[in-house]
Write a structure and sequence with these properties.
With 262 residues, this protein is mainly alpha-helical. It is built from ten helices and two strands. This is CAAX prenyl protease 2/Lysostaphin resistance protein A-like domain-containing protein.
């Protein structure tokens, strides 16, 4: 069955409230597990025990929520794929972010990381890349596109993604969580570029997982120092490209009875 545009019909028609409820449902389970396990965010990468209880376990719980909710809604295909793409030149920032993450790992001191810790780091990073991208730049984009233009979709989805880090105020890093929220808005814009440049959510998942793997496994500051600059650049690039697309769409809109229709 297809809709009027020829696209496969979705099981549940996208609505903003459904996307936000799915987002909040994921966060409720994730943070509930954190609270039960006594999270201290600043110590997540400290040991095998902390990685298991504060990294892998809450993400595994959140994964269950995502798999159930997105399957019930039937939004997998539009969550994972985009028809339109941004110019390939916008790949520069996602690639640069990946390079910084790799350098962060290569030059870090991994002497304290045990084989079991490496396992938990890999599993947790795969989960965080999948979970947070599907919930924030996957199903949430599907929901927001039912009501907003793409600039609004980018802004609102990225804002919600950044705000999911705000509760860290209560989980061990205090007011630094506010700075984290600001930085994550910028990094979320890099992940948005990775999705829109490729037409797939997978590159954003990989980049997100790589970044978190790098920051939790390494003690060098390259990632933290470059993150604000990457973020600012990404926000500027996204705004410029989306406004250009909006102008192009307006110019190509049909004229009916002397009035241009958009």
């Amino acid at each position: 069955m297809s809709d009027s545009t020829g696209s496969p019909a979705l099981r549940v028609r996208p609505r903003v409230r459904l996307g936000v409820l799915a987002f909040l449902g994921y966060l409720a389970v994730f943070y509930a597990i954190w609270i039960v396990n006594g999270i201290d965010y600043a110590r997540v990468g400290e040991s095998e025990d902390t990685l298991l209880r504060w990294y892998v376990s809450p993400l595994a719980g959140g994964l269950v929520v995502i798999l159930v909710v997105v399957s019930v809604l039937g939004w997998w295909r539009p969550s994972l794929r985009d028809r339109s793409r941004l110019p390939r030149s916008a790949w520069v920032l996602p690639v640069l972010m990946a390079v910084v993450a790799i350098l962060n790992m290569v030059f870090g001191d991994h002497s304290r990381v045990t084989p079991t810790m490496w396992l938990f780091l890999v599993v947790g990073s795969l989960l965080v890349g999948f979970n947070e991208e599907v919930v924030a730049r996957g199903q949430l984009l599907v929901a927001l596109r039912s009501r907003f233009g793409e600039t609004g979709v980018w802004f609102l989805s990225t804002l919600l993604f950044s705000l999911l880090h705000l509760p860290n105020v209560f989980f061990g890093i205090g007011s630094l969580a506010i700075l984290q929220v600001v930085i994550q808005f910028g990094l979320g814009s890099v992940y948005y570029l990775a999705r829109r440049c490729s037409g797939s959510l997978v590159p954003a998942m990989v980049l997100h997982g790589l970044w978190d793997f790098s920051t939790f496994s390494s003690d060098v500051p390259y990632a933290g120092l470059t993150a604000p600059f990457l973020g600012v650049a990404a926000v500027v690039v996204v705004v410029v490209l989306l406004r250009r697309d909006e102008r192009r769409a307006a110019e190509q809109a049909p004229v009916v009875d002397g009035v241009q229709r958009t």
